[in-house]
């Protein structure tokens, strides 16, 4: 038998339940209106979105779903049909007719996406991911397909899948879905990925100038908020590009779980279209400074090895929310002083 819960713990649990229930009511009220108030939705979403309301909330926050309720069904039907046409067009010719360079890179990356997670090891999910990535790449010739974009599809796909099933999306076998449902999930994931990438397009064009700029700004920011850490990294000849390039390119998705990423994106989406470049810079800086004490006691090799396999496996919402709060504080202090950053 579990030990009895003392009164203080019991009251705390009841208070938390009440807060959650209250927030949920606010979300339901906001989302069920005839015309969603996007400012109210952004404000609510910052602190996290209830999982069953997330598919709709994300689509509204990304501007994929129209705010007026009467327009939604027809918009979804049109966009899903449009995606199907794009797929048919892209794959109308045989393999020789496709862009071999793009297709080759996608074929390499898709099986490496989220290794060990059953959902992403299944053939039907991998075929969906290939189609999403290939269609996006040929529609965006300035960047084409760049490694890392495959990771960015996974939160959308899992969230939109969750709207149709009652179990954990990461354990689900997508071949069990009716074709029209899988097509809808795939189409919604494609359009939402496109919306996200529109805001960070210069991360993925030739030479990836957006990432270069963000990493440079991060190095300058860390020098201001944690001078001893910045000095130690410099003394050990550690360059920010050696670890932070991946943090910017994959939006920290290789460092934290998809569940953590999904919670983080609630806040990013509520912050607006620039958050995946602007606010993310402050999140990465707070993330690095979190390990400051450990890093300052390591040499070059120790630092690089530690930053490539960070101890975040057990992170839950609490750790992500702490990180977001710290980033928010940094953003508040430094955002208006951005003129001190080079290249902005």
Provide an overview of this structure.
- The model has no long low-confidence stretch (mean pLDDT 91).
- The longest helix has 25 residues.
- This protein folds into 3 domains: 46 residues, no CATH class; 132 residues, Helicase, Ruva Protein, domain 3 (Orthogonal Bundle), CATH 1.10.8; 134 residues, Orthogonal Bundle (Cyclin A, domain 1), CATH 1.10.472.80.
- The protein is mainly alpha-helical and 344 residues long.
- The N and C termini lie far apart (60 Å).
- 63% of the residues lie in helices and 0% in strands.
- The chain contains 17 helices and no strands.
The backbone outline, from C-alpha atoms, is globular
Arithmetic mean of pLDDT: 91
What is CATH's topology name of the largest domain?
Cyclin A, domain 1
Oligomer: single chain
The major beta sheet can be summarized as:
none
CATH class of the largest domain: Mainly Alpha
Portion of residues in beta strands equals under 5%
> What's the name of the CATH homologous superfamily of the largest domain?
Ypt/Rab-GAP domain of gyp1p, domain 3
What is the rounded distance between the termini? 60 Å
Instruction: Count the E strands.
Output: 0
Q: Unreliable runs, pLDDT <50, ≥5 residues? A: none
Count of spatially separate domains = 3
Number of helices: 17
Element order: H for helix, E for strand? HHHHHHHHHHHHHHHHH
Helix content: 55-70%
Structural class: mainly alpha
């Amino acid at each position: 038998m579990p030990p009895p819960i003392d009164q203080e713990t019991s009251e705390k649990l009841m208070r938390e339940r009440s807060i959650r229930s209250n927030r949920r009511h606010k979300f339901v009220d906001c989302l069920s209106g005839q015309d969603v108030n996007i400012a109210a939705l952004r404000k609510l979403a910052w602190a996290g979105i209830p999982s069953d309301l997330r598919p709709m909330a994300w689509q509204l926050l990304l501007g994929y779903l129209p705010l007026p309720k009467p327009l939604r069904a027809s918009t979804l039907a049109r966009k899903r049909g449009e995606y199907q046409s794009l797929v048919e067009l892209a794959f109308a010719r045989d393999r020789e007719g496709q862009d071999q360079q793009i297709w080759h890179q996608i074929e390499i990356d898709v099986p490496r996406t989220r290794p060990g997670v059953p959902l992403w090891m299944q053939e039907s999910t991998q075929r969906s991911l290939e189609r999403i990535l290939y269609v996006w790449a040929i529609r965006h010739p300035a960047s084409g397909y760049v490694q890392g974009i495959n990771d960015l599809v996974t939160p959308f796909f899992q969230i939109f899948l969750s709207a149709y099933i009652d179990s954990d999306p990461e354990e689900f076998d997508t071949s069990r879905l009716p074709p029209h449902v899988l097509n809808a999930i795939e189409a919604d994931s494609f359009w939402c990925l496109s919306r996200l990438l529109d805001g960070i397009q210069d991360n993925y064009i030739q030479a990836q100038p957006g990432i270069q700029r963000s990493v440079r700004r991060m190095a300058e920011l860390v020098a201001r908020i944690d001078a001893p850490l910045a000095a130690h990294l410099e003394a050990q000849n550690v360059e920010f590009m050696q670890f932070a390039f991946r943090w910017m390119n994959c939006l920290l998705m290789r460092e934290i779980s998809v569940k953590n990423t999904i919670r983080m994106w609630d806040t990013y989406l509520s912050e607006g279209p620039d958050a995946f470049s602007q606010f993310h810079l402050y999140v990465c800086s707070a993330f690095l400074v979190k390990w400051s004490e450990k890093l300052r006691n390591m040499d070059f090799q120790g630092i690089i090895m530690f930053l490539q396999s960070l101890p975040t496996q057990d992170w839950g919402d609490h750790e992500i929310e702490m990180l977001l709060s710290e980033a928010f504080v940094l953003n508040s202090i430094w955002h208006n002083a951005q003129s001190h950053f080079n290249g902005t």
